[in-house]
Write a structure and sequence with these properties.
alpha+beta, 6 strands, four-stranded antiparallel sheet, 2 domains, Alpha-Beta Plaits, 50% helix, elongated, 7 helices, Arc Repressor Mutant, subunit A
Length: 180
């Protein structure tokens, strides 16, 4: 269970994600999630944590021309929200479409920390390691991969590939529980 401060930052971050969503389906999904979480926040705790976030310079107040106030994440707040999102990241396993998602990377030694952290996070969320720098997963996960490469700031070293065939597919299907 996330605490009130984490929820506030993640909900404000969801507003940012909403602004970058191009499809109505994705926007609707964000709105439904935000509404559900806002209902779970105690109003007294909300006021206290908003004050604390403001003092910690994680949010800013912007006064609108109509007299209302908008809370906006600062860069520090965005980083904290990304950290929370990173820690709770999971990939929704829906019906398999017969395609394999592959993450391939060649990250230089000077960025070894990011390389190792990416590999470990991919394995933690369920990817199978074909080789040290090639991991595979059967379900849609492009948004999660985009998030990870931005989080670790390694975009130019990472490729995301969708393939129809892998020669050891039976082994992979067994690994992911896709065969009876």
């Amino acid at each position: 269970m996330t605490n009130t401060k984490e929820k506030i930052l993640l909900l404000l971050y969801a507003g940012l994600a909403f602004g970058f969503s191009y499809t109505l389906h994705r926007q609707w999904k964000i709105i439904k999630g935000v509404a559900k979480e806002w209902k779970r926040i105690n109003e007294k705790n909300l006021r206290k944590e908003v004050r604390n976030l403001y003092r910690a310079r994680m949010i800013e107040k912007k006064e609108n021309s109509d007299g209302t106030i908008t809370l906006v994440l600062t860069d520090k707040g965005k980083l904290k929200a990304l950290t929370y999102k990173f820690e709770e990241m999971k990939i929704k396993e829906e019906n398999w479409d017969g395609k394999w998602r592959m993450v391939v990377f060649d990250i230089p030694e000077k960025l070894k920390g990011g390389r190792d952290a990416l590999r470990e996070k991919l394995k933690k969320i369920g990817f199978y390691e074909l080789q040290k720098s090639v991991l595979v997963y059967p379900y849609e996960c492009k948004n999660e991969i985009d998030f990870l490469v931005e989080f670790f700031q390694i975009r130019k070293y990472v490729r995301f590939v969708i393939v129809d065939f892998i020669d050891n597919e039976l082994h992979l299907k067994k690994n992911f529980g896709l065969v009876g």
